[in-house]
């Protein structure tokens, strides 16, 4: 699986193929470009507006590439109860890593928690978060 | 010597992989098993039944030399002996994607029973169990199955809602990562009962470990559930897709907008076909029910809330984790006796039960029994049975604001009360927090909450008023 054409061929004929296609496109290209949306729309017999509507609806999909490493910091209630709000300034004190909010990683008894790619981190405090950010 | 370390995402986030690697480097064989659900002890190492808590890699040599004191036999830990583990019976004991382990521990018995007694009797067993939807709505699963079973169609679907987005909930994740075959078996039983040939597990993208385990388990067990076929579909970061009709739209490749009901998904669901949409916990309860009988399941619980509920203790709680218990246990027992109060050691100020759409409940109401009807009467909901504990440093006006803000971020935009109401709610709360026209704005907010509660299409807009109004009702001092 390398190009957009390969991705489209792999998902051809699949029920409700749009989300799996968008996930694959984003995995390979880091974002879903306008050109990609046009080709996907053509392949699935959708309008570009329909594809754009789906891309813009879901928080996971980006229309522009993010060059920095991304850390998703859980800001939901259980992590708030365990002090995540005090860590937000730590995250904002640097710009090398893009820190995005996420609402729940299912690690609610050992928060504050964060996700980097597929790697999970728990029991964060300012020291640990600083170290984590520095090493990304 | 048998060394076991969990490979659940929570254990890994606490360092379980590093610990397991350290054991391996010392020449010891390590089995990676599911989590016991005693999260404050993770990484928890199990050596021939004895537990070693909060283990770090540099302790491994000392543990192997017998120089570290254990916490005793894990299976005899009071946190476990007080539970009634039906759905989580295998937790901590089996390798998640090992078919051998699953077979050796009652695996596939429920499906065999369903195949032996046939579709109709299978639906009857589930009806007799009194099992209600564990996703939050509490709708009787057997009635839903019966509706789908009697709907005439060439294609029917089983959709497992694994979009566990509520804060303080992780039971679905633990099942998918710790006992994925149980969920697949439950789906296969549902398929047999209603005549479905295709199943989807819709898992949120925030759960990469669950996605990997489910995909591996589906590949390993495809021959056992054939001709039924199960496929994993991954969400894309939209909380509202946990709502069943929004989830169906997402599965169809559309924006995850909520559909008006009727038509019910049971009659016109995925791609317009009759569809069972059940939560992970609901489907995971089914193999036990078929193996042991619906009546045996119904003998647990209270009133119309039958069976057990995997309660999730989270937030600022001393002993956080998974506590499966028959309905009827009080909130106070769960939070204070079992949870041990707050992790910070400060007094408990309140708990939120049921995720971001659940009510905030003060300790004065901790006599509430865990029961769908009792909670509804108290203007609260059990939801997915997640309990977030807060200590006395919490600012309830900020939490009420967050509830509205969360609704504004996650609203699908389909209906006006939710789409506009949530943003107006944030603005009104900002005025209140700034001390501007507080009484008038509180009256406005109450009115807005009523509109959202009764005018929204789904639970997102409809239930956001629960945390907001419960915060105002129980903690008025934080708003004035």
Automatic annotation (TrEMBL), chain A:
Alphabetized SUPFAM superfamilies for the sequence: Thioredoxin-like (SSF52833)
TM regions (residue ranges): none
Keywords: 2Fe-2S, Iron, Iron-sulfur, Metal-binding
InterPro entries: NADP_DH_HndA-like, NuoE_N, Thioredoxin-like_sf
One Pfam family cited in the UniProt record for this chain: 2Fe-2S_thioredx
Cofactor: [2Fe-2S] cluster
GO terms, molecular function: 2 iron, 2 sulfur cluster binding; metal ion binding
Chemical reaction(s) catalysed: a quinone + NADH + 5 H(+)(in) = a quinol + NAD(+) + 4 H(+)(out)
Family named by the database record: Belongs to the complex I 24 kDa subunit family.
Listed name of the protein: NADH-quinone oxidoreductase subunit E
Organism of origin: Sphingorhabdus contaminans
UniProtKB/TrEMBL annotation, chain B:
Domain of life: Bacteria
Cofactor: FMN
Pfam families listed in its UniProt record: Complex1_51K (PF01512), NADH_4Fe-4S (PF10589)
SUPFAM superfamilies associated with the record: Nqo1 FMN-binding domain-like (SSF142019), Nqo1 middle domain-like (SSF142984), Nqo1C-terminal domain-like (SSF140490)
SMART domains documented for this protein: NADH_4Fe-4S
Molecular-function GO terms, alphabetical: 4 iron, 4 sulfur cluster binding; FMN binding; metal ion binding; NADH dehydrogenase (ubiquinone) activity
UniProt KW keywords: 4Fe-4S, Iron, Iron-sulfur, Metal-binding
Positions of the NADH-ubiquinone oxidoreductase 51kDa subunit iron-sulphur binding domain: 397-442
Family: Belongs to the complex I 51 kDa subunit family.
Name this polypeptide is given: Formate dehydrogenase
Organism, scientific name: Sphingorhabdus contaminans
């Amino acid at each position: 699986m390398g190009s957009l054409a390969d991705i489209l061929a792999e998902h051809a004929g699949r029920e409700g193929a749009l989300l799996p296609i968008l996930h694959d496109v984003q995995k390979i290209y880091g974002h879903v470009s306008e050109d990609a949306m046009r080709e996907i729309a053509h392949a699935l017999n959708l309008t570009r507006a329909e594809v754009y509507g789906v891309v813009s609806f879901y928080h996971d999909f980006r229309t522009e590439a993010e060059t920095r490493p991304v850390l998703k910091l859980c800001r939901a209630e259980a992590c708030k109860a365990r002090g995540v709000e005090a860590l937000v300034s730590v995250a904002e004190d640097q710009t090398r890593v893009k820190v995005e909010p996420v609402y729940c990683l299912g690690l609610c008894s050992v928060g504050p928690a964060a996700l980097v790619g597929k790697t999970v981190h728990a029991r964060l405090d300012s020291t640990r978060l600083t170290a984590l950010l520095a090493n990304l | 010597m048998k060394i076991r370390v969990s490979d659940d995402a929570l254990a890994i986030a606490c360092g379980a992989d590093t610990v397991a690697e350290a054991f391996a480097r010392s020449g010891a064989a390590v089995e990676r098993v599911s989590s016991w659900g005693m999260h404050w002890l993770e990484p928890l190492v199990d050596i021939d039944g004895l537990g070693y808590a909060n283990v770090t890699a540099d302790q491994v040599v000392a543990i192997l030399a017998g120089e570290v004191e254990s916490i005793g036999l894990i299976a005899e830990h009071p946190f476990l002996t007080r539970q009634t583990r039906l759905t989580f019976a295998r937790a901590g004991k089996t390798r998640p994607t090992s078919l051998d382990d699953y077979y050796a521990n009652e695996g596939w018995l429920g499906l065999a029973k369903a195949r032996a007694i046939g579709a109709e009797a299978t639906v009857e067993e589930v009806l007799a169990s009194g099992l209600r939807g564990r996703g939050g709505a509490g709708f009787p699963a057997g009635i839903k199955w019966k509706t789908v079973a009697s709907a005439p169609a060439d294609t029917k679907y089983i959709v497992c809602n694994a979009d566990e987005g509520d804060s303080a909930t992780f039971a679905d994740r633990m099942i998918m990562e710790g006992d994925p075959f149980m969920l697949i078996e439950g789906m296969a039983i549902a398929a047999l009962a209603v005549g479905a040939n295709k199943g989807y597990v819709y898992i949120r993208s925030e759960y990469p470990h669950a996605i990997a385990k489910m995909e591996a388990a589906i590949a390993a067990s495809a021959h056992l559930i054939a001709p039924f076929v199960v496929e994993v579909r991954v969400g894309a970061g939209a909380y509202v897709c946990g709502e069943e009709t929004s989830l169906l739209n997402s599965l169809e490749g559309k924006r995850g907008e909520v559909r008006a009901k009727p038509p019910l998904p049971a009659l016109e669901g995925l791609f317009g076909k009759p569809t069972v949409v059940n939560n992970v916990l609901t489907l995971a309860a089914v193999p036990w029910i078929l193996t042991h009988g619906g009546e045996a399941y119904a003998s647990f619980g209270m009133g119309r809330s039958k069976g057990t509920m995997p309660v999730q203790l989270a937030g600022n709680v001393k002993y956080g984790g998974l506590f499966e218990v028959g309905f009827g246990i009080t909130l106070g027992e769960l939070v204070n006796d079992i949870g041990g109060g707050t992790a910070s050691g400060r007094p408990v100020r309140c708990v939120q039960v049921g995720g971001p759409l659940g009510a905030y409940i003060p300790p004065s109401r901790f006599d509430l029994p865990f029961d769908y009807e009792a909670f509804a009467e108290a203007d609260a909901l059990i939801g997915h049975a997640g309990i977030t504990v807060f200590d006395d440093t919490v600012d309830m006006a900020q939490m009420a604001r967050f509830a509205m803000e969360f609704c504004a971020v996650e609203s699908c935009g389909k209906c006006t009360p939710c789409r506009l109401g949530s943003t107006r709610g944030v603005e009104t709360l900002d005025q209140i927090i700034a001390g501007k026209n507080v009484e008038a704005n509180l009256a406005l907010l109450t009115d807005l909450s009523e509109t959202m509660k009764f005018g929204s299409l789904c639970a997102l807009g409809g239930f956001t008023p629960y945390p907001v109004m419960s915060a105002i009702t129980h903690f008025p001092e934080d708003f004035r």
